[in-house]
Amino acid sequence: MRRVPRAARPRAGAGVVPRRAERSVAAAAHDEPRAQLPGPRLGARVARAVRDRALDVGAARAQARSGRRERIERRERRKRAARTARPALGARSQRSVLGVNADAKIQRRPSADGASVPLFPLANFWLFPGRDEPLHIFEPRYRRMVEDSLDGQGHIVIGTVAEGHESELPGAPPVYARAGLGVIRWHERLEDGRFLLVLGGIARVELVEVPSPHAYRLVAAQVLEEPIPPHAEVAQLRPALLAALARGVPGASLELAKLPFGQLADRLVLQLALPHRCMQALLAELDPLVRARIALDEHGRRKN
Fold first, then answer.
1. What is the pLDDT of residues 283-292, one digit of tens each?
2. Is the peptide bond before 140 cis (omega within 30 degrees of 0)?
3. Closest Cα partner for 288 from 304, 265, 258?
4. Domains annotated on the chain, with CATH
5. 186-194 contacts: CB < 8 A, separation 24 or more?
6. Segment 150-207, tens digit of pLDDT
7. Could you give the count of Cα atoms lying within 13 Å of 131 in the half-sphere of its Cβ?
8. Which helix (H) or strand (E) segment is 244 a member of?
């Protein structure tokens, strides 16, 4: 979980779920089995396997470092955008969520009567479908969360901490009800118990918090399907999205052309690094045409 600077604690607004008292769970000791030395005949094969694994791990670590740099750059762009963005953009993004309040906070259910998913709250972070995000897990309760997730289907929900409550991390701050569901695509457990992992976004979800017997929180997550947009409108907007995303990136068009229309819109949203409320509204928005038009409008404004 990324470190967030400590700030003055704001008051909880209307509709905010009060923070849940933290529980401490003793970290279970993990006895690592001793490595068995290979015989002479297996030496060369083992050496090749170790070398290949080292190359794979090195590439994954490089991807994690690159991802951290990218997140820092996005955060800086978002700060600059917050200072210059038109007020109308945030209002428009908010109104575009038809029948849904993008600022709605997660609610609680008194009992867990179905499958539940671990919740990993992060500040100023949004997991969009189709995105692979590298994460460094170091807090003990979230190490256990990753272990439990790996024992199951590998699913984790990234819940964005509600604006104004960032200072409540670490803790149990309120998160938005609409969030991103991810699956662990790659992981490495370090010697001290920390995890490096790549979490791939697979769906937008609606969350309801359920009781958890663990030190980490659990949610019931309902997958939200986006509507299929009319072909004519997709054909009109898709070239503009591809041009905006491929600008200044040689060879990017071929890779981008394979992506679904909705993921193209989401990629441009992430590239723009919009202010907090706009990002949450666009994550909550299911209509890809609405997301595409808002992203293209803002991209055109900045280009001009």
1. 999 999 999 9
2. no
3. 265
4. 59-96+226-303 (no CATH), 107-224 (2.30.130.40)
5. 186/60, 187/146, 187/150, 188/57, 188/60, 188/61, 193/27, 193/30, 193/140, 193/143, 194/136, 194/137, 194/138, 194/143
6. 999 999 999 999 999 999 998 999 999 999 999 999 999 999 999 999 999 999 999 9
7. 26
8. helix 231-246
